[in-house]
Design brief:
This protein is mainly α and 352 residues long. The chain has a domain of 121 residues: Serine Threonine Protein Phosphatase 5, Tetratricopeptide repeat. 47% of the residues are buried.
C-alpha cells in the first residue's frame, strides 16, 4: 500500500508541476488578465522550465502580494514552491511545502467548485504527513467531481495509511465502480480487503488488477504480498519470479520475494535476492536491515555483519545499528548450518 501510495503521490506532483490545475477551469480575476501579470506568469513558467525555482518563487510571491484573492496566482505560487521543494532537500524543502499548502488551500477556497485545486491541496498535505487534512481535501474533490475515480482512490489510500482500512473500503470500491478497468483502483481495494482480513476478496480483486496490468510491477508486488499474507508464499514467489531480473532488484520486489522465500525455508535464496537489491540500493535502510537478517538466517554471518555495517547509510542511528548487530549475533548463535558467503558484485545494468 505504501508503495502504491507513494507512486501516485509522485505522479500527482509531476502532473501539478507540468500543467498546474488551470485546465479544469480556474476563475480568473481582472488582475490576472493584465498584460503585466501575464508577462510575469510567462516568466515564472520559463524559470521553472530552466530549473530556476528560486526566481520563479520570488516572482510568484510578488504577484500574490498584488492580488491575493486571485486563485490562479495562488496556484502558481504553490506550483513554484512545490518545484523548489523537489529540487532541494532538508528544512528548505519542508518550508517550501508548508508555504505551498497555504497557497493551494487558499486557491481551493477561492474556487470552491474546482476539484483539481482541492485535490492538489490534498496531495501537498499528504506530502507533509498531514493525513487528516489530506483526506478532507480528497473528499471535497470527490464531492465536486463525483465521476472521477482519482479522488475516492486517494481518499481511500489515505484512510488506509491512517490505519483505517475498514473506512477505506467504501471510497476505494467507489473508485472501482467508476473505473472498473483501472488496475490501480483494483489493487488498492485488494490491499484494503487484505488489511481487514477479507482474504478471498483480496486475492480475487488483486488477480483482476494483474490481469488488466500484467506488466505493472507495483500491482504484481501487491498481489504477491496479499497471497503471502494468505499463507501462500509459493504462489507469491511464482508471481515475483515472473518479473525480469532487473525488476526484481527493486527494493519492494526484493523484500517481498525475500519474505516469501523465508516463509518457505529457502533462506539462502532469500539472502541472495536481497543482496542483489542492496548492492543496487545501498541507502535503503529497510532493505539493508532485511538483507542483514536474511544473511544471518542463512548462516552467512560475515555477510550479515557486512550489511549491518552499512545501515547508517540508510538512516539508522548508532543505537539502531547496535540493536540490529545484536539480533544478527543472536541468530548466528542459533545457526547450525553455515553457508559460504560470496561477495555480491555490483550489477552492470541500469535499474529503471
Amino acid at each position: 500500500m505504501r508503495r502504491l501510495y507513494g507512486t501516485l503521490l509522485l505522479l500527482s506532483v509531476s502532473w501539478m508541476l507540468l500543467v498546474g490545475c488551470e485546465e479544469q477551469g480556474s476563475e480568473s480575476t481582472p488582475q490576472t488578465n493584465s498584460a503585466e501579470v501575464s508577462a510575469a506568469l510567462r516568466a515564472i513558467d520559463q524559470s521553472l522550465t530552466a530549473g530556476h525555482t528560486d526566481a520563479a518563487v520570488t516572482i510568484a510571491r510578488k504577484l500574490v502580494l498584488i492580488a491575493p484573492e486571485d486563485p490562479i496566482l495562488q496556484e502558481t505560487l504553490g506550483r513554484a514552491l512545490l518545484a523548489r521543494a523537489t529540487s532541494v532537500g532538508g528544512p528548505t524543502a519542508r518550508a517550501s511545502q508548508e508555504e505551498a499548502l497555504v497557497a493551494y488551500e487558499t486557491a481551493a477556497r477561492l474556487t470552491p467548485h474546482h476539484a483539481g485545486l482541492a485535490h492538489a491541496a490534498g496531495v501537498v498535505a499528504d506530502l507533509l504527513g498531514r493525513t487528516p487534512t489530506a483526506i478532507e481535501w480528497y473528499r471535497r474533490a470527490g464531492e465536486i467531481d463525483p465521476l472521477s475515480p482519482s479522488y475516492p482512490l486517494y481518499e481511500g489510500l489515505a484512510l488506509s495509511r491512517s490505519a483505517l482500512p475498514m473506512q477505506a473500503i467504501a471510497p476505494l470500491a467507489r473508485s472501482v465502480a467508476i473505473a472498473p478497468s483501472n488496475a490501480m483502483c483494483l489493487a488498492a481495494l485488494a490491499e484494503a480487503y487484505a488489511r481487514t482480513g477479507q482474504m478471498d476478496l483480496a486475492i480475487s480483486t488483486a488477480s483482476r488488477a494483474r490481469e488488466i496490468a500484467p506488466n505493472d510491477g507495483v500491482v504484481r508486488i501487491m498481489e504477491a504480498r496479499i497471497v503471502r499474507l494468505a499463507q501462500q508464499p509459493d504462489r507469491a514467489v511464482r508471481l515475483l519470479f515472473a518479473m525480469d531480473a532487473i525488476a526484481r532488484t527493486d527494493p519492494a520486489a526484493a523484500m517481498e520475494l525475500g519474505a516469501s522465500l523465508t516463509m518457505l525455508g529457502r533462506h539462502a535464496e532469500a539472502a541472495d535476492a536481497l543482496e542483489r537489491s542492496a548492492v543496487e540500493h545501498p541507502t535503503d535502510g529497510a532493505l539493508l536491515e532485511a538483507t542483514a537478517l536474511a544473511c544471518a538466517h542463512s548462516g552467512m554471518i560475515d555477510r550479515a555483519i557486512f550489511w549491518v555495517n552499512r545501515v547508517r547509510a540508510g538512516g539508522f542511528t548508532p543505537a539502531q545499528e547496535e540493536i540490529l548487530r545484536h539480533k544478527v549475533v543472536e541468530i548466528g548463535r542459533g545457526s547450525t548450518s553455515p553457508t559460504p558467503s560470496p561477495s555480491p558484485q555490483p550489477s552492470t545494468t541500469v535499474n529503471p
